[in-house]
Amino acid sequence: MSPRLRLSLCRLLAGKSQASTSSSSCSVRRILDSALLPNSEFPYKLRPDDLHFSYLMRSNRQFVTLQCLRRYSGGSGNSEPEFDQIREVDRINLKFAEAREEIESAMESKETVYFDEEAECARDAVKEVLEMYEGLLAKLCENERKALQRSMGLKIEQLKAELQQLDE
Description:
Blueprint: H1 3-14, H2 23-36, H3 53-57, H4 66-71, H5 85-108, H6 115-139, H7 142-167
């Protein structure tokens, strides 16, 4: 693409007439230069505020680092991720389902040579669920803890009872 046509395209995209140029059209030109000529190097030095589309469109950069994306997000880059109760409950529910499958598998293998191994896997899975559940309860305030116990308490007791049934 000829430089003149590229400049016209830049001005058109920036909403400027042929005669006017501004800093916004220059930034659009940088973006289009990188998009239209992916193998060329930029004739200018990148500043931190230039790391937008021009940075993303460079062919030698396949992935944008998480730190770069974090810098332009709403949060700070150095803070620890917030505690997400819903995610933790989902993880516990997933492990709960896995533990029930392990118990079921062990029950099916009762009176076989594989029973001891299956039962041990089931015990480990139940232990992991119980540890995750207790850890989540420890992180919550009193009201949230009671709500979680009401919503998940029966499932946890069911898991304990199924494991006890396996041991009999």
